[in-house]
Amino acid sequence: MSITAPLHIHAFQQAIAPAALGRIRPVAQQDALAVHTHTSCQVWQNNRMVFDGCAPHASAWVSVADGVSSSPCAALASRSLLQVLHTGATFPATAGELPGRVRQMRRDWRARHLRPRTQGAACTLASLLCVQGQLCAVNCGDSRIWRLRPQADGSVQWLQLSRDHTVWQQMLDAGEVQPDEADRYASVYQGLAHCLVLDAGDDEEDEASAEPWLHIWHGQAAPGDCYLLATDGLHDTLPAAQLQALWRSDRPAQDNLAALHTAYQRAGSPDDISVVALWVERGSRGPEA
Prior knowledge:
The protein has about 290 residues and is of the alpha+beta class. The protein has a single domain, classed as PPM-type phosphatase domain (Phosphatase 2c, domain 1). Helices cover about 25% and strands about 30% of the residues. It contains eight helices and 13 strands. Strand 2 and strand 3 form a beta hairpin. Helix 1 crosses helix 2 (about 100-115). The radius of gyration is 18 Å and the shape is globular.
């Protein structure tokens, strides 16, 4: 089935509060955020930004990237990565093109931006492409993608489509720790197992090893679905239970996103944050594909 209803796009971005770093002056934003439709493409890296828009062709491509603060040129890493991925590229004809676009971006990004001063610059990526209701989500690192689907009883079902590439997640998968031990151990083992790095990496070797750095999910949207992408400034600041309590099925996605933003600010804005919501209007489906 294809979906012909418009897609609504809402986003916000905010840099870490200076007080969180013991400073007075604003600190440069290390996140980047991209919104790409058939008619426009924008990449932001602002200390404070709010965006509301629409993709009337029922197709949109959105991404967030988070510069790894311990790496050199972290802000350049996230911004340049999304510029290479989105800017100047034709809009994909199918959702299934996304993994190939990301693989090619990785090669082009290194070719264009790897210099002695940028060696080792790193960032995470979460990207979602929707084409007429067909979806593909990819991620590398700990930026996340969720599907929020309203239920008949008024609740909202949260499904994480991305996979955290962290040491903690690897330990969970191996059964070495339990989820309820997160408060005790996660802060120690939350280091990234994979991220995107400006280096002279061997792409052929990466592809031969089944690309552990790239997680891929395919699916189909339903009217009323909302797809939420965020850098770790969101889920590291607001626990899952609070996120889910703040997102209500009886109000628009724009208002729910504003509620997340307010809660993040009340928590002290302890990290850079970029969040984008892609909401499928409750319209009619098209004919069978």
